[in-house]
Structure formats: structure tokens, C-alpha cells
Amino acid sequence: MQFVFKKKAVEKERATRASFHVANLLAKKGKPFTDGELIKKCLNEVAKEMCPENVDLFSAITLSANTVARRVEHIERNIKSQLKDKASKFVCFSVALDESIDVSDTSQLLLFIRGINANFEITEELVSVHSMHGTTTGIDIFREVEKSVAEYNLEWKKLKCITTDGGRNMCGTKKGLVGQINKVIENSGGLKPLVLHCILHQQALCGKHLDLSSVLDPVISTVNYIRSHGLKHRQFHDFLEEMNAEFPDLPYYTSVRWLSYGKILARFFELRTEIEIFLNEKNHSQVLLKDSEWLWKLAFSADLTMHLNDFNLWIQGETSLICDLYSKVKAFQPKILTAFEQEAKSWEVRGVQEAEDGNLDSSIHMFTQAIQLAPQLSSGYNNRAQALRLKGDIQGALEDLDKAIELNTGNSAVCKAVVQRAILRRYKGYSFSRYSLLLFPVLLSLGFSAF
After folding, report:
1. pLDDT tens, position by position, 322-378
2. How far does Cα 180 stand from its chain's mean position?
3. Rounded to whole angstroms, how far apart are CA atoms 387 and 359?
4. Buried-exposed string 150-175: b where 16+ CB fall within 10 A, e elsewhere
């Protein structure tokens, strides 16, 4: 008899633990609690086929919406209790804050904490999410942060670093959050904490600084034309299915969502042929889809923004130290510079072709595009100087040659620039030293021609 009661107790405990596991998964995935009942039905159907003798065990698992809600509340209290216990042992800690507006125009303040104890054990958690319905000044944000610090029994003087999203209400040294925290720490006898701008937000801001409006604006207007009306959107979706397109639809662009920048450009480039056909059928043609120069820009922009998206995901993650993130940034720089340099070289090749065909204005424009993409390369200035010389703009050519020599990024371009500048100065009547005259044979012996 005792064995029977013990078995029932064990089965009940297992059913409760299973209920907690399912509730935890639903909460992590952001699914509605009512899905628990559907999951239970699925488990029962699986049990009937796989192990009919254990159907009663699965039926004993309680997964109603109210039960799942209670389970999630228990999990939340348990996590908070564990975090409070760890926070009480912190030798020092840092905080990271992010304030953003949700779809209901409510400001959401996220507070992350990273602390270390005497045994060098690091704890990193999201400790609170504050919904701010009123103003979001530095004082308002400080009050919310102060509540969390008091709730977890943290000492202000142990705060060593503050990482913010770069907003004025955060970074202000007087009325901002940083200023308010500095006052409290000074009053408690501590030292001012280090203040950092979140590297993820910096990367996003740098990405937005790129002026790709000449490419992005036509793409956005085309996508909005297709998706703004339900009928057109359905017709476009059916059209892609008929064409056996690689992708079933076009995504919207949302400036707040960092990764949407690259996704919409890449998807638009992959479906450019299908989009052109569909727009022509609707008598809403997009002339840029036939412009080879704009398509070059679209392809480069898609490639560039996808690199930025990959980098954004790469630098995310838990327990990442600032030295590790800095190393990742330094490793990414050559990769992105290589992409710019390759695109600049393609513009230079096309510029040379235009110059050989006698289209000097078009050639100068293309060399200028190459310089804007990779201003650190001397070859762009050197090539534009040749085009300017052929057009008769000697002074402009000399300025570009001076810049090419100043950059000094390669023997070939620099030697060509030195020879060209010397000849142009001679043409303008400059006098030359004996050393300059002796330099010409040396440069020419390297196998580089002036023009």
C-alpha cells in the first residue's frame, strides 16, 4: 500500500515539473498561455499511438491558461530570488540601459545588470522592464533605475560602469541619467563610474549614417506600391508562385528594426526581374530597373548592408567584454574596406573605358564615385587627374595629383602621380631642381608611364 501511495506522489511531482517546463517554454517563445491546452491535446494523441498504457500520465499534466500563468509567475519569483541572492554578493557591478518606444507609443526602459563576486563569477541578466507612460527625462529614468537598485539591494558605490543607448536623457552630465547617478555616487562616497555608448547602438547609428537614399527610396516606394493594397499584394504573391521565384514575397522596411535594411535590399535585388515584369503589367514601370548604373548601386548596397547585418549579429550575445567587442570591430574593418575598395575599382575600370571612348565628363563622374567609395586609395585621384588633364583642367589635375602623392598607398599610383605632376608643372612653367630632373629616369625605370 505504501508503494502505491509513493508511486502516485512521484507521478504527481513529475506531472507538475512537466507543467513547469511547458510553461517556461511558452514564456520564452512569447506564446499565449492558452496554447498549453493545445499542447496537452497533442501530447495525449502522441501517447495514444506511442505508449497507450501511459495515456493517463499525460492526462494528469495540467496546462490550462490559468495554470500556465501561475507557473510563469512562480518561475519569475524564483529567478528574481536567485538574482537577489547573487546581487547581494557582488563586489562591483555595471548597468546597461535601453529606452525605446513600442507599437502603442509607450516608452519601454530595459535595465540589464552585470556583476562579479569575490570568486570572479560573472552574472548577467535583464533585471527589469519599466513602462513609462509620461515623460522620459533623465530624472524620470533615474527614478525607475533607483527602484530596481533598491529592489535588488545593490549599493550605488559599487557601480563601476554605465552603458547607454546614447540619448541625451541618458548621457546628460547634469540633468541626464548619468548626471543623477554621479550625484548619488558622490554622496555615498564612491567614484564616478565609466560611461560608455553601447557598441550595438553605435553600429546601428553608423549604418544609418550611410546615405543610400538614391537606392533605398525607389526600393521602398516600389515595395509600398505592391504591398499597400491587398489585391496587388495577393496578385504579386501569386505571380511569384507562377514564376517559381526563389522568394515568396517582399518584406517591409522598418527603420527601427536594424536588420530590415539589408533584408529588403537583398530580397529586392534577387526579385528584380519579377518585380519589373509585374510593374509593367500594372502600367507602373520603374525606369531605374533598366538603369545598369542604378542596379550596380543596388547590388553593392545589398551586399554592404548584409555585411553590416552579419556584423550586428556577431557582436551580440551574453558575457561579451568590451575588449572582445573591440577586437571584433577591428577584425570587421578590413572586410568592409575591402568591399568598398572592390566597388571603387569597378568604378575606376568603367571610368577608364569611358575616357578611352572620349566621354570625359562621364569618366570624371565615375572616378569621383570611386573616390567617394574609397577616399583612402590614391588610384582614384590619379585616374581623375588624367581625365581632368585631357579635358584641359590643369589646376584640378594638379590638385588630384597632390592628393594622390599625399596618400601614398602604392608604388604604381604614386610614381605615376609624381611623373604626371612634374610634367604638368613643367607645362605651367615651374622651375625644377637638379634632384627633380634626376628623379624622372628613376621613376620611368620602374616601368610606369606618365599617361
Report:
1. 778 778 878 887 777 777 788 788 888 888 888 888 888 888 888 888 888 888 888
2. 30
3. 9
4. eebebebbbbbebbbbebebbbeeee
* C-alpha cell belonging to residue 364: 570624371
DSSP per residue over 86-134, as a string?
Answer: HHTT-SEEEEEEEEEE-TTS-EEEEEEEEEE-TT--EEEEEEEEEEE-S
Query: Within a 10 A sphere around the Cβ of 180, how many other Cβ atoms?
Result: 21
Query: pTM score > 0.70 for this model?
Result: no
- Backbone φ and ψ for 234, nearest 5 degrees, come out as -65, -40
What is the distance between the alpha carbons of residues 311 and 390, in angstroms, rounded to a whole number? 43
Residues 6 or more apart whose CB falls under 8 angstroms from that of 319 comprise 122, 124
d(CA 31, CA 198): 30
Residues 83-126: pLDDT tens digits?
Answer: 899 998 999 999 988 888 877 788 888 999 999 999 988 888 88
C-alpha distances out from residue 250 to 237, 261, 281, 311, Å = 9, 13, 18, 23
Give the three-class secondary structure for 104. coil
The residue among 226, 229, 231 whose CA lies nearest residue 278 is 226
Distance in angstroms (rounded) separating the CA atoms of residues 58 and 42: 10
For residues 309 and 307, give the distance between their C-alpha atoms in angstroms, rounded to a whole number. Answer: 5
167: left (phi over 0), alpha (psi -120 to 50) or beta: beta
Query: Could you tell me if 342 and 309 are in contact, meaning their C-beta atoms sit under 8 angstroms apart?
Result: no
Cell output for 333: 574593418
3 state SS of 131? strand
Residues 62 and 14: beta-carbon distance below 8 Å: no
Of the listed ranges 36-50, 105-119, 172-186, 316-330, the least confidently predicted one is 316-330
